Amino acid sequence: MTTVELSGRREQTKAANRAAILAAAREVFGQLGYGAASVRDIIRGTGLAAGTFYNYFPDKESIFRAVLEDAGMEARGRVRAARQAARDPRTFVEGSYRAYFEWIVEDPSTVALLARNAGAIRTEFDDLVTPLGVAELEEDLRAGVAAGLLPADFDVEYGAHSMVAVGLTLGERLIERDPPDVDGATAFATELFLAGLRAL
What we know:
elongated, 0% strand, Tetracycline Repressor, domain 2
């Protein structure tokens, strides 16, 4: 076996181990919550040796952050694609909220993760959730203003922060409903934001 083949195989093993740890962590945090979960619980869910975990993550906080980062990247990608496909203010706003709310409810492990950890995410890990989403939304709002989808004097900073706050808060409520009401949450958030936009 060549050095290149060995190196490629090592990289595949590392990627598989990291993915196994992240998948197990997502399940454990969804079942037990951040406060009650332990690194030992996560390791048990991987089938890997305890030392392997620490090759990738130094502690529980770092793995929780990695789980949230992965989830956030996926959610932001979907929401951003919906915004960038918008043809008018309504599809910009409605598409954003619908993409986010559908992402929340389509995977039971995401529902469990967010429902069980909403408090910890809000109080201890908000630095992961809000800033990237706001920054990307500000970019898209500026593009919307430039394209004429939004008024020229629209306050992008206030708009981005308020849209994200509404999405996060309604997302928390959405997963508490049985069954989750994606259409209702989307309609409420859309009308709330568009009414404010008209008033401005």
